[in-house]
Amino acid sequence: MRFRLHVFVCENQRPADDPRGSCGARGSAAVRQAFKAELARRGLKGEVRANAAGCLDACSLGPAVVVYPEGVWYGHVRPEDVPEIVERHLLGGQPVERLRLRDLEKPAKP
């Protein structure tokens, strides 16, 4: 496997009048750029990849981020949250609970 982890950052854009809003309108591009910069700063480029994603169906909780293959979801992520996510979760293995969206992590019922 080329990358140990993938960090998907929703950059979906919806019309301004959509009641759900959108991650893109809430600053998700800046969040992804913050991840890219922090991963490079920490020497994790090539091990962890920050990817732009289309709709993750969590825009009302956005900017939404999901870490794979673990399936850990984060919501309301701001660029200033990124160093903590990288330090505690991506390096330390402990998700950042204050941003975690546990309801999205539950397996779908058959």
What does this structure look like?
The protein is an alpha+beta fold and about 110 residues long. About 20% of the residues lie in helices and about 15% in strands. Strands 2-1-3-4 form a 4-stranded mixed β-sheet, with helices on one face. The chain is globular, with a radius of gyration of 13 Å.
List keywords for this structure.
single chain; globular; Glutaredoxin; about 110 residues; about 20% helix; alpha+beta; 4 strands; 4-stranded mixed beta sheet
Largest sheet: 4 strands, mixed
Rounded mean pLDDT is 92
> What share of residues is helical?
10-25%
The CATH class: Alpha Beta
What is the number of helical segments per DSSP (H or I, 4+ residues)?
2
How many structurally independent domains?
A: 1
Question: Would you identify the CATH architecture?
Answer: 3-Layer(aba) Sandwich
Give the beta-strand count: 4
Secondary-structure-based class equals: alpha+beta
Estimated share of beta-strand residues: 15-25%
What Rg do the Cα atoms give? 13 Å
Our measurement of the CA-to-CA distance between the termini, rounded to an integer number of angstroms, reads 30 Å
Map the helices and strands:
Layout: E1 5-10, H1 28-41, E2 48-53, E3 65-68, E4 72-74, H2 82-91
Parallel strand pairs: 1-2
Antiparallel strand pairs: 1-3, 3-4
Describe, in short, the structure shown:
By secondary structure, this protein is of the alpha+beta class. The protein has one domain (5-104): Glutaredoxin (3-Layer(aba) Sandwich), CATH 3.40.30.
